[in-house]
Amino acid sequence: MHHIDVRLEKDVYDVNNALADKNARQLNAHKVRAFDLLGAIGSGKTALIERLVPLLASKGLRAGAIAGDVYGDDDFRRIVATGIPAYNANTGKECHLDAHLVEHAIDHLPLDEIDVLFIENVGNMVCPTDFRLGAEKRIVVISSTEGDDVVNKHPMMFRDCTIGVINKVDLAPLVGANLDRMQKDIARYNPTMPVFRTNLKTGDGVAALVEEILA
């Protein structure tokens, strides 16, 4: 029975990865660079998009977004308020986006009017890691308010991402979080991952992050 479960799981991942590759090809055909945003609820994924949109616009780059949520459109409405094209992807009971949902969302976006697409995944530190979506880079956002042991609790998330963001640095002293410990833990699981410290309330640290995203 266990052998059958493993095979079924592999089939699910294989189908998803094939669709993710198809998404990547479609995005590339329209010269769209896509970035997957991962992190817990409240880490700052939507706030990061809100900060990145005007910075990209100042470089002549047009942004778009897919807002992934189990239910509702709170993040979607915040993103739309920035003036960019966006699509709300509700997963129902699933705790992550998958390549099929993203394929459906892409079909509803004006790809020829988008240079940079942000795919905001469902707020979860476990489920999204195994499901590639077709993005060229995966950005994981954590915050000091999650506790400075958050990296140690979710090592796979950091092994599978390409850029790290430690947000709410201003609140670290208030919650007793050691930012250096968080950064060292990330380096232990992914030594080559660049890590940026941000305060998305003020925008501190975001300009440097934009350069890394577009590198």
Features:
215 residues, alpha/beta, Rossmann fold, seven-stranded parallel sheet, 9 helices, 7 strands, globular
Describe it.
The chain has 215 residues and is of the alpha/beta class. The chain has a single domain (2-214), classed as P-loop containing nucleotide triphosphate hydrolases (Rossmann fold), CATH 3.40.50. 42% of the residues lie in helices and 18% in strands. It contains 9 helices and 7 strands; from the N terminus they run H-E-H-E-H-E-H-E-E-H-H-E-H-H-E-H. It has helices at 2-29, 45-58, 74-80, 99-106, 150-153, 155-159, 172-175, 179-189, 206-214, and strands at residues 33-39, 63-69, 86-90, 116-120, 137-143, 163-167, 195-197. A 7-stranded parallel beta sheet has the order 3-2-4-1-5-6-7, sandwiched between helices. Helix 1 (2-29) runs parallel beside helix 4. The relative contact order is 0.17.
List the helices and strands and how they pair.
Elements: H1 2-29, E1 33-39, H2 45-58, E2 63-69, H3 74-80, E3 86-90, H4 99-106, E4 116-120, E5 137-143, H5 150-153, H6 155-159, E6 163-167, H7 172-175, H8 179-189, E7 195-197, H9 206-214
Parallel strand pairs: 1-4, 1-5, 2-3, 2-4, 5-6, 6-7
Helix pairs in contact: 1-4
